[in-house]
Design goal:
single chain, alpha/beta, 423 residues, 10-stranded mixed β-sheet, binds NADP nicotinamide-adenine-dinucleotide phosphate
Length: 423
């Protein structure tokens, strides 16, 4: 018996019949170029383990003469969208970030019943349900793992693994560029230098304002809310506050409160409605979000049936995003669940805030008065010479914080209020 077993183990594995799959790629920059490189590096392993040989049959770019991290075979590279769209590939990968081109490619691909894989969060936030419906109608596939979390597989976890867990909330550090900048500036580097490094490493785009003002993370949390709760991401209002103007004051406030500043994106289910927000938050140093350093992303999914699931890993850059694209490309042939889409129901919530305010000539009293006029109670207040005042306020609605901020601004006191979980 044991002899037979040994013989069976020693037998060479049956050769897997090699399938060919054609890929048409739109965009060959940080992410698209890294995908081509990864396909080349993993070619033999993919053929051996998955039985598929991928051929890249068309690569669409803007400028044919731009230097690239990888060379494409002769005749494959083009800047002619119409000619490129004539490809015969079963799988189309979009990594341009160009909104109009991306939606055109997505619709053309899915209408032809092909597989569309994208890294483009703005595209999915604006058109996700429409594209999912197109895929459903025409028998195509829609995959977008690389659009949220970089190399952190949060899309698949929400889409497949946690479907029956009754999700209560999804919270996360979702913008690798912001987190990289916050980490470097908190360590003493200038904002300008941290931004320059983020660009050099391929985390930030030439225009980093979408990262800093929270639009990028808002697109990502809208996508996660769609997967978690079925809320249409194109109509979900995401409350958004950027950190581009007050970063130094906010970091000073975080230091005073013994916390760590992070850009936090959250969506919650409240009595049948969904609300979403992206804003800077001071977190206790022990929080997993505070511990996500540099370009790292961290997501916590709170469920009723399975407790809290946390995922973290590299959230930006070519190689992790290309790995997420490749995993989608490999999944392209598998059946997938269709995400639900329902109307949103936004709600406000009450939170603690840390305040940094210029001390008025009349001392602390006018500040307390202005806050009190909008129902904002004060837990404690402390002056920081020569002219700054720090305070922690009681949990209040965002609208009250906004109104109190406006009043203090009108009084010329340059107020900054940051939501805090460290107080
Ligand atoms: N960078 C990251 O860390 C990261 C992570 C996850 C997801 N993403 C997403 O991935 C996408 C690509 O980002 P990226 O960082 O790779 O950008 P990128 O380095 O600027 O590359 C963009 C590529 O798309 C091409 N392109 C742009 N507009 C085009 C147009 N109108 N027609 C044809 N080609 C066009 C560019 O051509 P040229 O080379 O000729 O200019 C370039 O090859 C974006 O949606 C981004 O949000 C990025």
């Amino acid at each position: 018996m044991s002899g037979l077993l040994l013989q069976a183990r020693a037998a060479a594995p049956a050769p897997v019949a090699l399938r060919r799959a054609r890929i048409a790629l739109a965009g060959c920059g940080t992410v698209g170029g890294s995908l081509i490189r990864l396909l080349r590096e993993r070619r033999t392993a993919i053929e051996r383990e998955q039985g598929v040989r991928f051929d890249v049959v068309g690569v669409l770019v803007r400028d044919l003469h731009r230097p690239r991290i990888v060379e494409s075979a002769a005749g494959v590279l083009t800047n002619d969208l119409r000619a490129w769209l004539g490809h015969d590939a079963e799988i189309v990968v979009e990594a341009t970030g160009a909104p109009d081109v991306a939606v055109q490619i997505a619709r053309a691909t899915l209408t032809r019943g092909r597989c569309f894989v994208t890294a483009n969060k703005a595209l999915i936030a604006a058109h996700g349900p429409e594209l999912a419906a197109l895929a459903h109608t025409h028998g195509g596939r829609l995959h977008f793992e690389a659009s949220v979390g970089g190399g952190v597989p949060v899309v698949r976890v929400l889409r497949e693994a946690l479907r029956h867990t009754a999700i209560k909330s999804v919270r996360g550090v979702l913008n690798g560029t912001c987190n990289y900048i916050l980490t470097r500036v908190a360590a003493g580097e200038s904002f300008a230098e941290a931004l320059r490094q983020a660009r050099w490493k391929g985390f930030a785009e030439a225009d980093a304002s979408r990262d800093l003002d929270g639009r990028d993370a808002a697109d990502k949390i809208a996508i996660l809310a769609w997967l978690a709760f079925g809320t249409d991401p194109s109509v979900l209002p995401v409350l958004r506050r950027g950190l581009e103007h007050d970063i130094d004051a906010m970091l000073a406030a975080a230091a005073v409160h013994g916390g760590v500043l992070r850009q936090l994106a959250e969506c919650f289910l409240w009595e049948g409605g969904v609300s979403a927000v992206v804003e800077p938050v001071i977190l206790p140093p022990t929080s997993p979000f505070a511990q996500a350093a540099g370009e790292e992303n961290c997501v916590a999914i709170e469920t009723r049936r399975s407790g809290t699931i946390r995922l973290s890993g590299p959230g930006a850059g070519g190689p992790p995003s290309a790995a997420a694209l490749l995993s989608d490309v490999l999944q392209a042939a598998l059946p997938e669940p269709g995400p639900r889409a329902t109307a949103p129901s936004p709600r406000a919530d009450e939170r603690l805030h840390a305040w940094a305010i210029t001390t008025p000539s009349g001392g602390v009293a006018p500040v307390l008065e202005a806050l009190g006029a909008h129902g904002v109670g004060v837990e404690w207040v402390r002056t920081a010479p020569p002219s700054r005042l720090h305070a922690l306020t009681t949990p209040v609605q965002r609208s009250q914080v906004t109104a109190a901020l406006r009043a203090l601004e009108q009084a010329g006191l340059s107020p900054v209020a940051v939501r805090t979980e460290a107080g």
